[in-house]
Specification:
Blueprint: H1 8-12, H2 14-25, H3 33-42, H4 47-75, H5 77-87, H6 95-104, H7 109-116, H8 122-125, H9 127-132, H10 137-164, H11 169-197
Length: 199
């Protein structure tokens, strides 16, 4: 379990530390959130800790999205587009990706927000165009919270289940992470191929 020792200082701060980590994940996407959540799940020792971590990460994810919403609302449409064009590449947000997220809100706002929290890249930045468009905030916050809960709980429980299994958690966690990354790459490639074929 030496691989999990990286989380020891963070877990020492308890609920607040995990909330802060979840907020930070919304602004510094160094690696996929599902890997972070799965590793956190593997570091949890009991069901009570699992429940607390689910609540803490959901609160942090929602708070991070609210921060992006507020930034978008403050910037406004023209300034947000300008910032994305200049600096988006540093946060892995291309102008085309930003436009697609903005256009998604032409449909049902609540369900776009909720489902967006279940898509790896989209879940980080979807709140920015939501703020730019000044969507109804209570609806946005509720959808974000529900989507974050579903996403976070799934991978935290997966990590916790791996730890509780009779197999080597490091090896099982490694192969589970590989499978998740491959699945994400496969889905992204399939979408790209589909779009090229039906242009």
């Amino acid at each position: 379990m030496d691989t999990l020792n990286w989380f020891a200082p963070l877990l020492g701060y308890g609920f607040i530390g995990i909330v802060c980590l979840a907020v930070l994940e919304k602004f510094v996407p160094l690696f996929p959130s599902y890997l972070l959540l799965m590793l956190l799940g593997m570091a949890i020792g009991n069901v009570h800790g699992l429940v607390n971590t689910i609540v803490a990460t959901t609160a942090g994810s929602t708070l991070g999205a609210i921060c992006w919403y507020s930034i978008g609302k403050f910037w406004g449409a023209d300034h947000a587009v300008s910032i994305v064009r200049r600096y988006g590449r540093y946060l892995f947000v291309s102008p085309q990706f930003y436009d697609r997220m903005t256009n998604a809100y032409r449909r049902n706002h609540f369900w776009v927000t909720l489902s967006g929290q279940l898509i790896p890249a989209v879940r980080i930045y979807l709140a920015l165009p939501a703020g730019v468009l000044r969507l109804h905030f209570p609806s946005f916050a509720a959808a974000t919270c529900i989507g974050s809960l579903l996403w976070n709980a799934t991978f935290l429980c997966l990590g916790y289940g791996i730890r509780a299994s009779h197999y080597d958690p490091v090896k099982v966690g490694f192969w589970a992470a590989i499978c998740l990354v491959c699945a994400e790459a496969l889905i992204a490639s399939s979408i790209a191929i589909y779009k090229r074929a039906y242009r």
